[in-house]
Specification:
This protein is an all-alpha fold. It is built from ten helices and no strands.
Length: 222
């Protein structure tokens, strides 16, 4: 008897549930092991930078400190630059969260933005005693040689400032016609650039209060 044209030749058989669970469990375990290896490399690099106060170290030093293999390192990173980039992105993400927490303690949208801008300025100022080579060394090189990577690293910070600018707009305090995200980007660049160059202002370095007054007069109605 001939089979009807609209009748499927066969019905696909789903994998047994036990097999799906086994594969998923295996994948999750492999992911956890990879994450642990990556964290050990990052922790090793952080420890070396804290000791040296510079990003001038070798991949082999990181491998030796982490007690893992060179082969394992290159399974997770293309090289030293990608390792530093991972550390910098993580640091920027944590910094954005710290600023968000500090801003949340303020009651008004203008005060929330003010504390975020001033704290960002203070955190971005060069401080030899603080030994923050990711910000004083790597970040500057990244800005010049890899602007797209810097943009990605700054994304959490830009998102925070955009949220705060949006709150300002909703409160009727942002200048008409200004777009929160664009103003946030301009403010972030102004604050971070001036912070990095504040040490070159001679005997009268720029202060956090001054940078806030300068920025606020540009985007607020007052």
């Amino acid at each position: 008897m001939a089979q009807k044209a609209d009748q499927p030749l066969s019905t696909p058989t789903e994998e047994p549930a036990w097999k799906q669970r086994a594969v998923e469990r295996s994948t999750q375990a492999a992911k956890r092991r990879a994450e642990q290896r990556v964290e050990r490399f990052l922790d090793a690099a952080q420890a070396i930078m804290a000791e040296k106060g510079t990003t001038d170290f070798t991949v082999q030093e990181v491998v030796d400190r982490s007690k893992q293999s060179l082969r394992s390192f290159y399974q997770h990173f293309d090289g030293k630059h990608e390792l530093l980039l991972a550390l910098f992105e993580d640091a920027m993400s944590k910094s954005a969260e710290q600023l968000r927490t500090a801003a949340a303690e303020q009651s008004s949208p203008l005060d929330r933005l003010k504390i975020a801008v001033q704290t960002l300025f203070e955190n971005s100022c060069p401080d030899p005693a603080a030994k923050r080579p990711l910000f004083t060394d790597f970040a500057l090189r990244l800005l010049v040689s890899h602007p797209n990577e810097m943009r990605v690293a700054n994304a959490p910070l830009l998102a925070l400032l955009t949220d705060l600018m949006t709150d300002l707009e909703e409160a009727g305090l942002l200048r008409p016609g200004f777009k929160p995200r664009r103003v946030a980007a301009l403010t972030m660049q102004t604050v971070m650039f001036n912070a990095q160059s504040s040490g070159q202002a001679g005997s009268h370095p720029i202060t956090a209060d001054e940078i806030w007054e300068f920025c606020a007069k540009g985007f607020t109605l007052s």
